[in-house]
Each structure stands twice: as C-alpha cells, then as structure tokens.
Design a protein that fits this description.
CATH superfamily of the largest domain: HUPs
Largest sheet: 3 strands, parallel
Number of helices: 14
Number of domains: 2
Shape: elongated
CATH architecture of the largest domain: 3-Layer(aba) Sandwich
Distance between the termini: 33 Å
Bound molecules: tryptophan
Radius of gyration: 22 Å
Strand content: 5-15%
Length: 334
Amino acid sequence: MMQKVVLTGDRPSGKLHLGHYVGSLLNRIQLQAEETYQSYVMIADTQALTDNFERPEKITESVFDIMRDYLAVGIDPERTTIFIQSQVPELAELTVYYLNFVTLSRLERNPTVKTELAQKGFETSIPVGFLCYPVSQTADITAFKTELVPVGEDQLPLIEQSNEIVRRFNRTYNTDILKEATPLVSKTGRLVGIDGRAKASKSLNNAIFLSDSPEDIRTKVFAMFTDPNHVRVSDPGRVEGNVVFTYLDAFHTDFEEVAALKARYQHGGLGDTAIKEILNATLQTLLEPIRERRQTFTHKELCDILQTSTHAARRVAQQTLEEVRNTIGLRYFD
Ligand code: TRP
C-alpha cells in the first residue's frame, strides 16, 4: 500500500504548551494511528537558529525538552519518525538548489515572513538566513515527498511558497520528481493565552506548559482573564472572550456540563473562583499523567531514539537529493 507522507515541524525555542497540544499534537497522534499515513515530525533547529543564532544553546536545550513532550503526550517513535533538522544536511543542499527558484521580492512579500520581520524589528537590516527560511522549509517538505502538511493558519503562505518552488523546479527541468503538498489547517485554531491575547506563547509568558507543576497550573488558571464587569457572584457574566470558558471548551471532557456552567454564569450566580476551580481540576487531570511520563525517559533514551530516527529520515532525504542532483545534471563521476 502506498502511504501518504505527513510532515509537521516545530521550532525548538522552549517547551511545548497547551496551545501546541490542541493545535497540533492531538492531530499528530490521530494521524500516526492511521495506516494510510506515514508520519514525520521534524524538530526544526536550523530554522529556529535563523532568529536565535546568537543564543544557540536556547535551541539545542529545547530539542530535548520538546522530544520529552512528544513522547509524553503519545507521539510514538515506532509510528512517527521524529528527527532533527540540522542532522539531515541533505536539507541544506536542497535549499541551495531551490534558492534559484525564488526572488528576493517574493520572499519579502510573504505575509508570514513580513509579520515576523516586523515583530523582530528586522525591517531595516534583514538577515538573509531568516529571509530564506521559507526556502529551507521547502526542502523539509519535498525531501520526504510530503503530501500533507498539518499546520496553523499562519503557515499557509509558506506552503504556497513551497508549492511555487516545486512547480518552477519541475517546469524548468521538465520533471515531476518534486511533489506539491496540501496544507491541512487545524480545526481548533489557535489557543488564546491566559491573558486573553490572541496567542498562547512562551515569549508572551501567557501559556500553560505541558511540564508545568501543579502549583504553576493553579496559579496560571487563577490569573486568567475572565469578564472584568463580572464583579459580584450574583452579576451576570460574559462567556465570550472569557478565557476560562475558552479553555473549558477546549479541554473539559463533558460538553453538556460546560454548557450548563455557561448558562449559570451568564444568568448570574456563578463566581469566577468556582469556574476556575473546575478548570484547574480539568487541567490537573489532563497534565498529571503527561508530566509524570515526561520523567520516565532518560536523556540517553531520548538521544538513542532521535539518533535512530534521524538516521532513517536521512536515508529518505539522501534518495530525494540524489534524484534532484541527477535531474539538474549534477553528475560527473559515474
Ligand atoms: N515554520 C514552522 C513553524 O514555525 C516549523 C517548520 C519548519 C515546518 N519546517 C516545516 C512546519 C515543515 C511544517 C513543515 O511552526
């Protein structure tokens, strides 16, 4: 049976949080269980370096944290090839060939890149490595003949860019060896931060991490943004934009109970402390086994798994690179 290749990646710049859990990890666990898919998960350390090259230890340390998070939530190395980007040098060589198929202005116009350039204050002095990361991402995708890329909304321009490079390459060399990929946008969307801001993220310090202690979880739940006009317990409260309810929607297992809580809250008579206690209990139950499982792997075990599966990924990338070189005609000695 021909399996479809599914590839996802994470930049290792900190531990994974609940936003990753609902936005991508659950999805990956589901996909890896399906026989028709072959799953790859890439730890994108090379890409993470493009905006952290002055602090490489931040990246290299996160690689193992993230690997621990993956295994703890149930990404199974028997079913999913988890590999480290920088340890597959074929990706770098593919990037060099693909750079010919994209213009400077096209990269600068990429909406994802544009937003990031502004966020990082790079506009007046753009590091070329950063600007070109979409090309390197094209190498990640094509090296494994990826058909499906489950991503967040913000990654869509990168997949589009990748497919554009694929089409140009194929047209130029009159071939079809490179495959276009289809993005699969997560239905859940992104999880808001505990402060109610658009996105839970490490840099905004508004995320609950999979590895947070019970005390940290509780503190963060009790710091959550609710409804500023809900002053007394008896006041009617707002559910929309209320982070506690957003998280209950995402993580509470009993849909009807959440609906009943919402009705009571809107009516008046349900306090913030009460709903926060319920959310706290929900999250403690979810995260306790994950936190405990995180501790069961030794550093050596993580290392061994990563080394074996990176080696397997490398063999696939070598094969594609060989085809690409042959297609261009870069073959002199045999
Ligand atoms: N750009 C992705 C992110 O920031 C990470 C990534 C790198 C990726 N290479 C990829 C995602 C290939 C999907 C496919 O989350």
